[in-house]
Amino acid sequence: MLSLSGVRVAYGRIEAVRGVDLTVGAGEFVGVVGSNGAGKTSLMRAIAGVVRPAGGTIRFDGADVTGRKSHEMVARGLAMVPEGRMVFADQTVRDNLILGSYTRIGRDDPGIAADMDKVLGLFPRLAERIDQLAGTLSGGEQQMLAIARGLLSRPKLLVIDELSLGLAPKILDLLFPVLTALNREGLSILLVEQMASYALSVTARTYVMENGRVILEGASAQVAADPRVLDAYLGRRDAA
Ligand SMILES: Nc1ncnc2c1ncn2[C@@H]1O[C@H](COP(=O)(O)OP(=O)(O)OP(=O)(O)O)[C@@H](O)[C@H]1O
Ligand SMILES: [Mg+2]
After folding, report:
1. What is the structure's pLDDT at 239?
2. Does the keyword Transport apply (predicted)?
3. What is the mean pLDDT of the chain?
4. CB of 42 closer than 6 A to ligand 1?
5. Could you identify the atom of ligand 1 that is nearest to the CA of residue 38?
């Protein structure tokens, strides 16, 4: 589904991503963890076509998409829920959702209506607030909206950057099962997550990034048991 080889991202002289290889298979649920500034967001922005990679190759759904712009990536089936959610605060929940379907408007209106029903079923809190301005939603509800908006492009791969940012555990206990259910239906998911314990428990495979590089990858259960991960991210020094 997605395959990165030697991907680099630079901002002027700052090298945020220094040659990353990463894959997400069809139907796979893959995590990326790592400390602040490791380059996770920069990598996701390269994948989604928001920044142009300074080097390397990105293949998606059978095509070389290196350097393609974000709108083309959406049309090809990649949806990104960006760090900080970026919902349109002064628009209603409904209008935010409609914006998510923009690549399909006029070409697949019955499909959009069906997907709208589906995402509102996944997130009943959004259904109750459909005419409310997105800026008045709680952080958790905004994250639900950002995910729902992404789903309305009917993606093959959903990329989520920092699902848990600023959210209470109670909300996360609502959100993670939705992702698991979507993945079981066949959606490929790439999840960047600071709360490593959550990410490692829901994903099948995990990459650990440090200083722009992947320092460890493997089955999530194996990564979770690695002393470096226990030490740095799971706060269980003694267990290591
Ligand atoms: N637009 C930018 N211009 C210049 N430098 C940037 C820019 N965005 C990120 N960086 C730098 O690139 C490096 C990687 O940042 P990035 O946001 O990708 O990391 P991250 O792993 O997502 O961190 P966090 O966990 O805090 O979200 C950092 O040193 C950061 O300061
Ligand atoms: Mg980030």
Report:
1. 40
2. yes
3. 93
4. yes
5. 21
Ligand positioned closest to the Cα atom of 36: 1
Among candidates 199, 206, 155, which has minimal Cα distance to 180? 199
pLDDT (tens digit per residue) in 64-75: 999 999 999 999
- Distant-in-sequence, close-in-space partners of 133: CB < 8 Å, separation ≥ 6: 89, 90, 91, 92
36 lines ligand 1 (CB under 6 A): yes
Question: Distances from the Cα of 186 to the Cαs of 28, 45, 127, 181, in angstroms?
Answer: 8, 23, 24, 9
Given a contact cutoff of 8 angstroms between Cβ atoms, the answer to whether 103 and 82 are in contact is no
Taking the C-alpha atoms of residue 15 and residue 8, their distance in angstroms, rounded to an integer, is 8
What the block records as the tokens of 36 is 């602040």
The finding on whether 38 has its CB within 6 A of some atom of ligand 1 is: yes
